[in-house]
Write a structure and sequence with these properties.
The protein has 167 residues and is α+β, with helices and mostly antiparallel strands. It has one domain. The chain has 2 helices and 9 strands, in the order H-E-E-E-E-E-H-E-E-E-E. The protein has a 7-stranded antiparallel beta sheet with strand order 3-4-5-9-8-7-6, sandwiched between helices. 21% of the residues are buried.
């Protein structure tokens, strides 16, 4: 369930950034789809895609985002998108010890104190979408109960962070 919701949140963030995931042009008169992506250079041994990822082993630098200050958290995974054309982009997942509602409320109050405007029309029991008031940055925070509670970590947090000023 979390993976599906994460994918939906990721697609909505990308679409709100003006991107279309898997966009193709309408069918041509012959009934074939034309690919709207730029052609790959045949001589390029390492073609790049703006959605290529690099796996990080530590929490990436997200200086505008308040760092969670609960009882403790552990990083599950972090990705960076080095070719993302809108700036620095990270996706971070970590597990935390507090209940889902506590972490959700923490982000709802910490983000505005750090200069973020929460989009109230895009907030629900698990998701918070915000834009920074002074910098070209946006974030989506998804907080869900993990169900397992292994090692005392019972909540999973996913953060999508885009800093357009860092292009």
């Amino acid at each position: 369930m979390f993976k599906i919701q994460t994918a939906l949140v990721f697609a909505s963030v990308l679409c709100s950034a003006g991107l279309q995931v898997g966009a193709q042009q309408p069918a041509s008169p012959q009934g074939q789809m034309k690919d709207s992506r730029p052609p790959i250079k045949k001589n390029d041994p390492h073609p790049t895609n703006e959605f290529d990822t690099n796996i990080l082993t530590t929490m990436p630098p997200m200086p505008l985002l308040p760092e969670y200050t609960g009882k403790g958290y552990k990083l599950v995974n972090a990705l960076t998108y080095p070719n993302f054309k809108y700036g620095k982009c990270y996706t971070v997942r970590f597990n935390a010890k507090e209940p889902q509602s506590v972490i959700h409320e923490w982000y709802l109050s910490a983000l505005p104190m750090a200069g973020w405007k929460v989009k109230t029309d895009q907030v629900d029991a698990t998701t918070i979408v915000a834009k920074h008031t002074k910098q070209l940055a946006s974030c989506t925070v998804v907080v869900q109960a993990s169900g397992s509670g292994a090692d005392g970590y019972r909540t999973e947090v996913m953060i999508r962070y885009i800093d357009q000023s860092a292009r």
